[in-house]
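Whiteboard transcription, Tuesday session. T.W. wrote the C-alpha cells on the left side:
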C-alpha cells in the first residue's frame, strides 16, 4: 500500500515539476456509473471517470483534500498504525497558510476524500489504515486469532465479541457452525444470545444497529465464501430492512468498486415478510407509512436486481397495500422467546426465505 501511495504522490509531483496542471482521474460514484452483473449477482462500478484539476477553482479543494488524506495514510503505513475516520478529519482540519480557508470544514468532506483515494488506489479503506467505529456483536462456537490473541466467541458472556472495523487479519482457528444469522438490531441479538440460540442450533449470531458496517459485511462474506456457511438476514418488514438485505447480498451503490470484497450473493432474507405478518397475526402492530417510506419502497422495487424477481415484487405489492411496516420486535407479542423457539427454527427448517 505504501508503494501505491508513493506512486500516487509522485505522479502529481512530476506534473507540477513539469509546469503542468496536476490532475487525477476519479471514478464516478453515481447510479449512472453502476451496473448489475447477473452472472455474479453483484453491483459493479462502470468505467466512467471524472478529471479533477488542481488549477480549477471548482476542483481545487477536493483535490487538496484527497492528497492530504493520501499523506496521512502514507504516514500511518510507515508507522504501522491506524486512525478512525473522525481522527482523520481532525488530522486534516487546518487552515491553509495565508488564507482563512480550512482544508476540511465537515467530516463528510474527509470521508468523501477517503472514498476517492480507495477508488484511485484500488484499496480498501482498512488497507489505507483508516477505520470506522466498532459496531456489532458476535457469538457462536468459533475460535479466532486476532493480533496474536486467541478469542473464543462462545465464552464472552452477554456482550459477545465486538466486531472491529478491520477484520482482514483475523484467522479462524476453529468453526463449529452450520449457518449464520445476521440481524439489524442489537436488541434482537441480545434475545437470541440470552436464549443461547447459537448453542442450541449450532450457528453464529451477528448484529449491528441498522445498516451493517463494512467490518461486519466483510466478516459475513468471509464466513460465506471461505467457510461456505449460509448467511440468513433478519430485519424488519419495511423498505429499510429490505435495503439492508439488498446491500448485504448485492453490494451498495456507493461502494460498488469493492462489491467483490463485501457482497454476499448467497445471502437469504429470513426477516419479516408480508406472509409472516398475516401468519402470526402481527397486523395490529402495523406502523403507518410516512412519505419517506413510500419513496424508499418505490426506489427499491425498481432496482435491476429486484425488478424481475416475482417473489420480491409480490412482497413489495403487499407492503404497498398495507401502506405500513412492522418491526421485528413485534414478535415478542407472541412470547418472550417466540423468535428463538418458533419463528427462526421453523423458517430455517421449512426453507421459508427470500433470495
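and on the right, the sequence the group agreed on:
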Amino acid at each position: 500500500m505504501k508503494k501505491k501511495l508513493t506512486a500516487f504522490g509522485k505522479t502529481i509531483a512530476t506534473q507540477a515539476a513539469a509546469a503542468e496542471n496536476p490532475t487525477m482521474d476519479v471514478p464516478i460514484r453515481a447510479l449512472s456509473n453502476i451496473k448489475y452483473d447477473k452472472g455474479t449477482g453483484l453491483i459493479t462500478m462502470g468505467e466512467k471517470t471524472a478529471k479533477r484539476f488542481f488549477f480549477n477553482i471548482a476542483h481545487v479543494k477536493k483535490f487538496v483534500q484527497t492528497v492530504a488524506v493520501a499523506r496521512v495514510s502514507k504516514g500511518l503505513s510507515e508507522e504501522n498504525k491506524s486512525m478512525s475516520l473522525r481522527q482523520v478529519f481532525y488530522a486534516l482540519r487546518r487552515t491553509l497558510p495565508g488564507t482563512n480557508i480550512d482544508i476540511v470544514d465537515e467530516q463528510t468532506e474527509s470521508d468523501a476524500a477517503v472514498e476517492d483515494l480507495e477508488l484511485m488506489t484500488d484499496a480498501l479503506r482498512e488497507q489505507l489504515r483508516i477505520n470506522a467505529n466498532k459496531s456489532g456483536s458476535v457469538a457462536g462456537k468459533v475460535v479466532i486469532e486476532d493480533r496474536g490473541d486467541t478469542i473464543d466467541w462462545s465464552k464472552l458472556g452477554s456482550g459477545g465479541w465486538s466486531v472491529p472495523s478491520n477484520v482482514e487479519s483475523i484467522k479462524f482457528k476453529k468453526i463449529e457452525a452450520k449457518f449464520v444469522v445476521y440481524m439489524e438490531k442489537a436488541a434482537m441479538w441480545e434475545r437470541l444470545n440470552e436464549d443461547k440460540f447459537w448453542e442450541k442450533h449450532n450457528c453464529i449470531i451477528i448484529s449491528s444497529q441498522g445498516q451493517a458496517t463494512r467490518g461486519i459485511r466483510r466478516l459475513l462474506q468471509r464466513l460465506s465464501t471461505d467457510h461456505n456457511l449460509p448467511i440468513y438476514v433478519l430485519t424488519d418488514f419495511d423498505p429499510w430492512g429490505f435495503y439492508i438485505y439488498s446491500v448485504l447480498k448485492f453490494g451498495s451503490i456507493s461502494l460498488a468498486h469493492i462489491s467483490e470484497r463485501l457482497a454476499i450473493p448467497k445471502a437469504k432474507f429470513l426477516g419479516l415478510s408480508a406472509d409472516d405478518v398475516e401468519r402470526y397475526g402481527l397486523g395490529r402492530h402495523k406502523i403507518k407509512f410516512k412519505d419517506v417510506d413510500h419513496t424508499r419502497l418505490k426506489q427499491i422495487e425498481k432496482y435491476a436486481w429486484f425488478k424481475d424477481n416475482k417473489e420480491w415484487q409480490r412482497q413489495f405489492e403487499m407492503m404497498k397495500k398495507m401502506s405500513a411496516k412492522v418491526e421485528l420486535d413485534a414478535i415478542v407479542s407472541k412470547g418472550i422467546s417466540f423468535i428463538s423457539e418458533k419463528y427462526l427454527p421453523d423458517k430455517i427448517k421449512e426453507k421459508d426465505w427470500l433470495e
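Someone added at the bottom: Residues 150 and 177 are 18 Å apart (CA to CA).
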